[in-house]
Specification:
Blueprint: H1 2-21, E1 28-34, H2 52-55, E2 63-67, H3 75-80, H4 84-90, E3 96-100, H5 117-133, E4 137-141, H6 160-172, E5 176-178, H7 180-191, E6 200-203, E7 215-221, H8 223-239
Parallel strand pairs: 1-2, 1-3, 3-4, 4-5
Antiparallel strand pairs: 6-7
Helix pairs in contact: 5-6
């Protein structure tokens, strides 16, 4: 009986030691607001994949991902359609808000979503201020680059005006910045003009039953491309030394 009590005591002591040396991480939520390059897609649109989909797979169980990005949205319409306010109302202290807009804001040919540079800047500041009012942590992300090469085979900047505004807001308001525009542009250059097609929704007619007529899209990613972009964002988290880096699990790329 004495030996049994001794073993039990040692067991309880070990549990107490483990609980002391391995503190439980506080749960946090990453709220993602943005456009079609980030958002969720259902299986009927496979292999179309927003980078926010694989991004969610890279964190341990202490992190919850809330991907509120929607296709076709600009900063202006995300606010006017009342998509932003529910996020604000749900924010808790220590949450993160990842903000990536620009593709639709700059689309002058789509007046339903176009946002002037001045209003784009104002809306970004609103996202930052209202996140901070709830003691959440905003993270600004420049719009991911489109695939475009010049005649010499050099990847071309495709968001010059709007990415510059994101950088300016991040600098002035001391906000963490992930320069995804620059990082993705460098990725496409590394792949090269032809091989970079492998990252995008480039399908020949009859190649995929979801796209019987084929598709030639240099903006939206397939599953392979979205995972590469998600990993660039993870690099940005580490580069900016965000606390989130301690919650990232091992590389999970499958292809």
């Amino acid at each position: 009986m004495t030996e049994l009590k001794l073993k039990y005591g040692l067991f309880v002591g070990l549990l107490a030691l483990l609980s002391f040396t391995l503190p439980v991480k506080k749960r946090v939520t990453i709220w993602m607001i943005g456009d079609s390059t980030m958002c969720q897609y259902d299986s009927s649109r496979f292999p179309l994949t927003g980078w926010g989909m694989p991004f969610a797979e890279y964190f341990d169980s202490s992190v919850t991902i809330k991907n509120e990005a929607r296709g076709g949205r600009s900063t202006r319409t995300f606010i006017s359609e009342n998509r932003w306010q529910p996020v604000v109302d749900s924010l808790k202290e220590g949450d993160y808000v990842f903000i990536q807009f620009g593709h639709n804001d700059e689309a002058k040919s789509y007046p339903d979503r176009y946002t002037t540079p001045e209003d784009y800047k104002k809306n970004l500041i609103q996202f930052v201020d209202e996140s901070r009012d709830k003691k959440a942590i905003p993270v600004l992300i420049t719009p991911v680059s489109r695939r475009k090469f010049d005649t010499s085979g050099n990847a071309v900047e495709t968001h010059e005006v709007y990415s510059k505004i994101v950088r300016e807001v991040a600098d002035k308001y001391k906000v963490s910045l992930i320069d995804l525009d620059q990082m993705s542009n460098e990725l496409f250059q590394k792949f090269g003009e032809k091989n970079s097609e492998l990252l995008f929704m480039q399908l020949a007619p009859g190649e995929n039953p979801n796209y019987p007529l084929g598709i030639n899209d240099n903006t939206h990613f397939n599953t392979y491309g979205a995972r590469h972009i998600a990993e660039l964002v993870l690099q940005g988290i580490k580069k900016d030394n965000l606390e989130l880096q301690d919650r990232i699990i091992k590389n999970k790329r499958k292809s």
